[in-house]
Amino acid sequence: MGRKRIRQRESDKGKRFAPHVAEKKSYDQQEPVFSLTQIRKEFCISKCERDEKAAFADTLHRLSQKTWAEIKSSHRHGIGFEKIDRLSIKSGIPEHLKEDVSFIAFRFYGKAPMVGYRDKRIFHVLWIDRMFKLYKHE
User: Domain residues of the chain, as ranges?
Assistant: First the structure.
């Protein structure tokens, strides 16, 4: 029996496209990505008024132009965020979130917060607290 040679691939590079090579950098040095897949029904964007929805979209856009490090160093009532004590949340917390998950709030319409958690570079929005009923606000 004759041996067959395995043909070497010429290149991963096509005529018009090159493969995407992700840079290895800290998640804090990357821009945030936002997910609304876990948003709670009673605190959903669908409950917002037109101006609130516009402000929400604008806030997501402004935040997506910064790195997590830049956001962390910003004031909590500006483009920054504040930590929210898990015990202060008056709505049901999704069961899949372990006790060590920290909740943070970004302001999007005046002082109205969107609250969720960060996983690497993704911010998962769980609650849009436009009526200030999710937790005790200071």
Answer: 27-87+101-128
